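Exercise: predict the structure of this protein bound to pyridoxal-5'-phosphate.
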Amino acid sequence: MHPASVAVSAGRPTGVGEPLNHPVVLASNFRGEAGDYSRWIGTPTWQALEDAVGALEGGTAVSFASGMGACSGTLFALAPRVLVIPSNSYMGMRDLVAELQAHQLLEVRWVDTADTAAVIAALPGADVVWLETATNPLLEVADIPAIAAAAAEVGAKVVVDNTFATPICRRPLSEGATVVVHSGTKFIGGHSDLLIGLAITTDPEVHERLRRSRHVNGTTPGAMEAFLALRGLRTLALRVERGEASAQALVQRLRAHPAVDDVRYPGFGAMVSFVLRGGAAAADATCRAARLVVAATSLGGVETTMERRQKYAGDSHVPPGLLRMSVGIEHVDDIWDDLLQAIPAV
Ligand SMILES: Cc1ncc(COP(=O)(O)O)c(C=O)c1O
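Solution:
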């Protein structure tokens, strides 16, 4: 089946007389003598979301309290001594890795993810390679199949953060990754109303270690969050296809705009970063003047959001005038009209 159909149909009850959607099961405890406690065995509500995301990514999923819960849970599960990771990966991930490094729990090799030869050169002796389908916020793309093949030769596992591409645009497990992680907070949930994370793998042993990681660390998702994330997931394909089509149109228009210096787009998905000639002042003014586009930090919702990223210490390496935009499902001409009135003239 096509991903759009999987997103709609996976993770549903199938018995006659059952509801079409698994209900919100609010339970820490289950009757019986088997020690069935939800932190360990999960709940039917988490399971439904895990079944659907697992089917979409082509593996089995474990849900976590947030995207960072999934990222830290995956590191815990794989327990690398040496990690290769893009020097411009998501700043939350760099924070986590820096903490582990400071505690001497991890040796870190920072690489330029778009430079496949440099990534491969950093592999000998590494246990895990961490990639993002498009880096946040510079939107650089790694050659996953080439890196995964080289990693397999040295016995390293590849983890791919697929938050930006979503399984509608990329399926890294089919390209050689062992684990895919998501901030389900973003496109999977799709409505900016929850925090959740997911880790998906094709390896049964890694799946068991991910479950155990959630159990011992207690990074469990909320029942309502899991329910809402699955409800959001039902429309993932529609939202991503619409956002992607609009993003591609906006990329063309932004490239022709006299105030825009550079436009970054990975070629798929709904994320676009663009740099204003007027630098930080022009980018801040654009965020303040926008009416339809929401000036906000998160992404992947039905609403278009944008943010100047260099204001964060963790993203001080990006151009001062860079705006990262998550294109929502509004009409593309309305988004464009809003940008036109908000971007200061040069
Ligand atoms: C690429 C990426 N991975 C992981 C995360 C962390 O997700 P969460 O905020 O749900 O913990 C984010 C959050 O912005 C992200 O952009």
